Amino acid sequence: MPNQLSTTLPGSRWRPNGTRIPPVFIFLFFTGAALISTVALFFRQPLLVAYIVLGVILGPFGLEYIADASLLSDIAEFGTLFLLFLLGLDIKPIKLLGTLKKRSS
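and the corresponding structure tokens:
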């Protein structure tokens, strides 16, 4: 029996257990993140607060759009990567080197 992951098309979003993340969830995440981030920036709040609020709204304690624990785990890993990417865009290399020099001495 061939591996399902090896027979998928490039760009498809397959989870490790072989099931696919529904595109409507991906649309909800990005659309919700854009809307709530706009509100957070208007009230001068950090974007991290907006992302946490979105997770609470869409998760099992809010509107219950997503109640599957394994799907939530996969989404959390994607969110962590996204936040690390944003952090990497925000840090200036000179500031990072200065911090490393302070810590090493």
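(Above: one complete record from the training split.) Residues 22-104 form one domain.
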